[in-house]
Amino acid sequence: MANITKKVSWSSRTDESGAAGEGTPLLNGSEQPKLSRQLSGGGSIFQIGRLSTVDLEEEITSEEDSLRGRPKEIPHNEKLLSLKYESLDYDNIENQLFLEEERRMSYMGFRCLEISRWVVCGLIGFLTGLIACMIDIVVEELAGIKYQVVKWNIEKFTEVGGLSISLILWAVLNSVFVMMGAIVVAFFEPIAAGSGIPQIKCYLNGVKIPRVVRLKTLVVKVFGVICSVVGGLAVGKEGPMIHSGAVVAAGVSQGRSTSLKRDFKIFEYFRRDTEKRDFVSAGAAAGVSAAFGAPVGGVLFSLEEGASFWNQMLTWRIFFASMISTFTLNFFLSIYHNNPGDLSNPGLINFGRFETDSVTYNLYEIPLFIAMGAIGGLLGALFNVLNYWLTIFRIRYVHRPCLQVMEAMLVAAVTATVSFTMIYFSNDCQPLGPEHTEEYPLQLFCADGEYNSMATAFFNTPERSVRSLFHNQPGSYNPLTLGLFTLTYFFLACWTYGLAVSAGVFIPSLLIGAAWGRLCGILLASITSTGSIWADPGKYALIGAAAQLGGIVRMTLSLTVIMVEATGNVTYGLPIMLVLMTSKIVGDYFVEGLYDIHIKLQSVPFLHWEAPATSHWLTAREVMSSPVTCLNRIEKVGTIVDVLSNTSTNHNGFPVVVQVAGSDEPAKLCGLILRSQLIVLLKHKVFVELARSRLTQRKLQLKDFRDAYPRFPPIQSIHVSQDERECMMDLTEFMNATPYTVPMETSLPRVFKLFRALGLRHLVVVDDENRVVGLVTRKDLARYHLGKHGLEELQLAQT
Amino acid sequence: MANITKKVSWSSRTDESGAAGEGTPLLNGSEQPKLSRQLSGGGSIFQIGRLSTVDLEEEITSEEDSLRGRPKEIPHNEKLLSLKYESLDYDNIENQLFLEEERRMSYMGFRCLEISRWVVCGLIGFLTGLIACMIDIVVEELAGIKYQVVKWNIEKFTEVGGLSISLILWAVLNSVFVMMGAIVVAFFEPIAAGSGIPQIKCYLNGVKIPRVVRLKTLVVKVFGVICSVVGGLAVGKEGPMIHSGAVVAAGVSQGRSTSLKRDFKIFEYFRRDTEKRDFVSAGAAAGVSAAFGAPVGGVLFSLEEGASFWNQMLTWRIFFASMISTFTLNFFLSIYHNNPGDLSNPGLINFGRFETDSVTYNLYEIPLFIAMGAIGGLLGALFNVLNYWLTIFRIRYVHRPCLQVMEAMLVAAVTATVSFTMIYFSNDCQPLGPEHTEEYPLQLFCADGEYNSMATAFFNTPERSVRSLFHNQPGSYNPLTLGLFTLTYFFLACWTYGLAVSAGVFIPSLLIGAAWGRLCGILLASITSTGSIWADPGKYALIGAAAQLGGIVRMTLSLTVIMVEATGNVTYGLPIMLVLMTSKIVGDYFVEGLYDIHIKLQSVPFLHWEAPATSHWLTAREVMSSPVTCLNRIEKVGTIVDVLSNTSTNHNGFPVVVQVAGSDEPAKLCGLILRSQLIVLLKHKVFVELARSRLTQRKLQLKDFRDAYPRFPPIQSIHVSQDERECMMDLTEFMNATPYTVPMETSLPRVFKLFRALGLRHLVVVDDENRVVGLVTRKDLARYHLGKHGLEELQLAQT
Questions:
Q1: Cβ–Cβ contacts within 10 Å for residue B352, how many?
Q2: How many other C-beta atoms lie within 10 A of the C-beta of residue A770?
Q3: Is Transmembrane helix among this UniProt entry's keywords (chains A, B) (predicted)?
Q4: Most confidently modeled of A255-259, A420-424, B142-146, B477-481?
Q5: Tens-digit pLDDT profile for residues A607-634
Q6: What does the pLDDT look like over B88-119, one tens digit per residue?
Q7: Omega of the bond prior to A710 within 30 degrees of 0, cis?
Q8: Beta-carbon neighbour count of residue B661 at 10 Å?
Q9: What is the pLDDT of residue A552?
Q10: Nearest CB to A310; choose among B105, B308, B750
Q11: For residue B585, which residues of chain A lie inside 8 Å, CB to CB?
Q12: pLDDT digits (tens, 9 = 90+) for A586-605
């Protein structure tokens, strides 16, 4: 839709080879079935037009980055597919070392491993719960102080006049908090911005998002989310919990931290993408579980967003982590709330208990619910479209950290001002109940013993506002209050999402939905004769909240379960499902879900569940990249160094071929080796000649590869002398001897299914003589998508 | 453990080639890497030692069966793997016909298909809900009449003496109902016996269980389950609902019925295993959903038992079917209960509403719950071991239908007698509450205004008994009553499961668990000082029920959700999870789950989630079957007929190879063709010579294959004349040109992962020149399992 200049905000780094991808043929289809093999003397180094950019220099580049200042801006178009993102390896590299290790391991060894997986999951759950608890308590305390100060100030000035001073106090307090949050995010770790859910979705999908599961990111995220919630922005602290859980998982499971430069020498077996992904799934689930008190919802979230291959044992471990997480949070919160041991009140957001009597619904309400689902879908689509344009605007104009901080502060100040104005001009006074359900009742210009109803919505943390909308007695809000609140909060929330602060969109969505839902309930009660009996405003607030949230994020199964678990009552299961489905169908008609929009704007090569329906006419031949750079089974070191140093191609996987000595026949595939493996080999100088001279030296082990994981050094950092360049390297032991292959005639859906189901990174395309003719990677498959005019092909770019 | 003579009870058919599998080498490992290819003149028909028995003659054989009388008995050992069971084809056969059709289809075509998938799922849900509703109402009415008659009789004879007449009346009534149920099952459709869950598990796993999704099976199942529940057996009607849902799904999605001989000419696209499996998943989920009012639990059940490849759209459809099913059941039941439109009371079994006040639990109760989980695991293991021995006994001695009917009648009479005796000798009298919560209160020898407490447990449908145990006031049962009830019901339920009646084990398990759980609660209340405050017997009954059920069936995630949904309150989520996990861990230490035991006793080649942990030393070379019978791309009709008619091998898939003309080189793989496809080709006489002579004749289409699905005629029914035998057949268009292949060195876990993730039926093993060296099928992978002494290999047999 828009062709704009952008700075990639998920990672503030750009590649040197920025404009390299241009001019390469994007459809190397049947026009060029003949392979232009360039056989170099003795070796078989085939050049390749386009292949993945390496992402191994992460550590280095980010340091360089700060030196070379702000990166240059690159033309950007959302129909692009970035070559910057690498794939994760969810397929075990079954080389001889790996098989030897597995074969050596006894049955007891596997049992111990399984037990340590459970232990890690338990730890993940425990730590995630603790973090959630910490965030909750700090936010509660700080927000309490802030609202008390402002309330005291307002009360002081209500009588003597000069409420503008209160307004300024409020706005300044908010801005200061938000400024702190925005500074850490914008200057120290831009990846910590937003809810983190799109990033975790990508990670679980198999895309490596740089720095997304680092300890530093976690620290910034936690600090940032506290600041932005206390700063009174229209945000929630739930989305970030999911990201936090994932970071905890990635950290704990590896038994070391690069940020802290500590290696605990434990869990070394888990130092590969396959295992790490499983733990990150568990972490994300634990995060959801802590955020909403929804362990089953957490498991479903992980599965819905991540898993392609469903494994029962894994699911149970994820479930266990979720369970421990809810339990930990509950336990510590119950102590904090001076009610130790009461575990029945879970989650960061708690919808409060819906009483059994008020939750019944009737058949004739179902169409009403569905209609509300449709409204939620429409409003959600509007929200997403507005946020889309806003994001484009931000990418174009607001990409400097200082500008981002200023925008965040502006939003904070405007939020305070709008809230204050709304409260000031509202004349919706309600009697103060005897049980003091309101935390910070503002009397303002109401009579004694009354409070301002608008203030319960605005002058409160969003979680409490949601609860008030669900549970306050019918009549607590008048329709005008709700209408105005919906309108203003809708635009505030829309403006807020995408700021350089850590914050989620769940709670604002729920709040908007609850407000207009309650409004619907009130209207129904007034226009129908029996409505006042069945049209409980709290019930309609819940349905509205589900509709709005569904319309914005477009999850169904997991969201249903999350909502049901958060309400603590399964009676609403059916209506919530119906509402979420309707809102998804209606919303999808206009625009994608919010997370998908943001993923697309980052040009991430995201693989959906299935290949586009009409892609059967494409075959591996058209899809694959070719020619492929291949290596010989015994290859010259110099050749390998040259291949790895070639910055214009930057491949990550190389088919290993074997040539029949003295024969003219083309080489046959015998394995696949990764750049990261080659780098470790070069670093340890595993050369044939050296092996002969120092026989006593220890053999290279799997441990050496694990120690280097996941941040392998760049090729530039490895010194290879001129003599060494003439040595040979035997790759036999290290290559994956049984890579998955497909024939050239395989249809795209079939290739896609194999690739997605097994979580591959490279898929070798061979001819009927088992000779390498091409390589399929994630970008080759993600390029094709179903647009409005049938199958479309995205452009590849280095951005 | 036992080496016994058996008749396979899941399908009363045996193969002619009964003893064929004997003497074949079972580990064709590295001792025989050389392939003994037997090249027949011109063709390349390789003979094969052992491969799958065909299951295409189903229709015919079952007719023959009744003619040739009872099948002979075959030595049986549970360490066998039956060759009788065929695999389903979950991998699309991408031949030219299929690709042409897919390529012709427009985007709108795919949309319509997607919509019709939703329509089918809606229909599945609706019909499953209707069936559940019908079963519920009929059982309710018939059981009501039965209990009223007996109650009236007992009341009459209590005063005048002669209660033995009442006992006889009760026992006879029960036996008559059970006899009817057992007769239809034993004589008409043995596959309808039991809960059907093991069979559906196998189906979803990819094993073709003959006649499991037929309309006839459904009718017998529904009639049978009504009879057995009304007959007062210790059974539930929930398990059979899952089977019923699956049958409905398989029927509706195919748009025709073989039993009714009707073809509605709709949903023809869905006539293949891939699509059918998806619908059967939805049907099973709808069944769970109707049985327990647990739509999310249903989805999770389907996924936990079935899906290997998680697909978001599919999950949503399954969810939709579940939702509709609960909704339908609810709606019609609400009308039946004269409360139309009240949808808040779902499911066949309803645990009743747990009030919020009584459901809170404290931290110090968690260890108690875990201890109860352990007890549940132990009792569950005991149940399973007893039932295992009983099943072995039945396989050996009680395999004639008349014996089976007599055993069922005996159980029914004993159940009635035991119940009567227990009630008679019980002196646990309770005051009759004013609200008459008991449906059939038996006064017996109690004072006026009191009722016999033992009778609420025994003189009632099991569903009502469970509800009483959960919800009756503390003090409604005395400990002795509960103890005796647990003891007797445990053995009755154990004896009952496996009878030739349609019945489930869910409700009896819940009932046993609820009884001892309530007992625990009462004991806790009496031995601790504050126990009477927190130890609510209803709460402990629920925990006990979960523990017992978990200990018997060993599901965790789906069962947790089912229990939570059935209680209508998520507060118990955490304790239920803990309890189910504990009971699974404890139970698994002793013996497998009940369903797995029954699957194993049937020697089904069931594939678990992962290859055994210590199987890395096995490679495709050791696992595969070889040599393989291959066909040429253009093959003589006579050769094909001979290959298909060879009853000693009975292969189902044949690699298609191409030979370079005039060259000595071995043939290269170019495709894979199935027996079923060859049979359709032969039937339509698609011979090269004929094609030339009648050019105008229509080409063979995908429709012809679909019309023959799933019951392809046997080769014997196809007449091929001597002239035609000399014709040639061109397989190019019909074979799957891009079958998945692996090299010989691939490790077993890798082969397993590919096979399981993609739902394959045949996986071709090739050498580095792309020549066929072997074929891996389901049995080759299912053979290896982790026994007590490491990796064990099951024997293959034709039984």
A1: 16
A2: 24
A3: yes
A4: B142-146
A5: 888 888 888 888 999 899 888 888 988 8
A6: 888 888 888 888 888 888 888 888 988 999 99
A7: yes
A8: 5
A9: 94
A10: B308
A11: none
A12: 999 999 999 999 988 888 88
CA dist B731 and B669 (Å) reads 13
Mutate to test the interface with A, among B570, B659, B776 (most CBs of A within 10 A): B570
Range ranked top by mean pLDDT from A382-386, A705-709, B44-48: A382-386
Q: How far apart are CA B702 and CA B543, in angstroms?
A: 54
Residue B222 identity: V
Cβ–Cβ contact A560 with B under 8 A: yes
Contacts of B766 in chain A (CB under 8 A): 770
Contacts of B672 in chain A (CB under 8 A): none
Contact between residue A607 and residue A755 where contact means Cβ atoms under 8 Å apart: yes
pLDDT in tens, A633-665: 888 899 999 988 887 777 888 999 987 666 666
Calpha distance A456→A440 (Å, rounded): 8
SS3 label, residue A469? helix
Residue A29 has pLDDT above 50, yes or no: no
Query: A750 and B770 in contact by Cβ < 8 A?
Result: no
DSSP secondary structure code for residue B476 in this structure = S
B754 touches chain A (CB under 8 A): yes
CA dihedral B628, B629, B630, B634 (to 10 degrees): 180
pLDDT score for B382 = 96
A616 touches chain B (CB under 8 A): yes
List, as one string, the DSSP characters of B354-409: PPTTTT--BGGGHHHHHHHHHHHHHHHHHHHHHHHHHHHHHHHH--SHHHHHHHHH
Put simply, the chain A residues between 101 and 140 with a CB less than 8 A from any chain B CB are 102-103, 105-107, 110
Contacts of A99 in chain B (CB under 8 A): 616, 747
Does B390 touch chain A if contact means CB atoms closer than 8 Å? no
Residue B320: list chain A partners with CB under 8 A: 581
Give the residue on B whose Cα is nearest the Cα of A324: B574
CB atoms within 10 A of CB A436: 8
CA distances from A475 to A422, A527, A726 (A): 19, 15, 86
Picking from B296, B299, B251, B261, the residue whose alpha carbon sits closest to that of residue B120 is B251
Chain A residues 640-679 within an 8 A CB cutoff of chain B: 668-670
Residue carrying structure tokens 């006074």: A429
Beta bridge partners of A736: A672
C-alpha angle A232-A233-A236 in degrees, rounded to nearest 5: 100
Distance from CA of B755 to the nearest CA of A (A): 11
Q: Strand locations in A577-722, DSSP E? A: 631-632, 634-636, 653-658, 668-674
**Residue A62: Cβ within 10 Å count:** 14
pLDDT for the residue B15: 38
CB atoms within 10 A of CB B441: 20
A359 interaction partners in chain B (CB closer than 8 Å): 344
Nearest residue of chain B to residue A332 (CA atoms) = B363
Q: What residues of B are in contact with residue A296 (Cβ under 8 Å)? A: 296, 557, 560-561, 564, 573
Residue corresponding to tokens 């919010």: A594
Instruction: Give the closest-approach CA distance of B689 to chain A in angstroms.
Output: 28
Residue A310 touches partner B, C-beta closer than 8 Å: yes
ipTM: 0.86
Q: Is B747's Cβ below 8 Å from some Cβ in A? A: yes
Residue B44 has pLDDT above 50, yes or no: no
Q: Does B286 touch chain A (CB under 8 A)?
A: no
Q: Which residue has the tokens 């227990």?
A: B422
B636/B630 Cα distance (integer angstroms) = 13
Residue B420 CA to residue A354 CA, distance in Å, equals 44
- Residues of chain A with pLDDT > 70, as a percent, come to 83
Residue with tokens 């806790």: B524
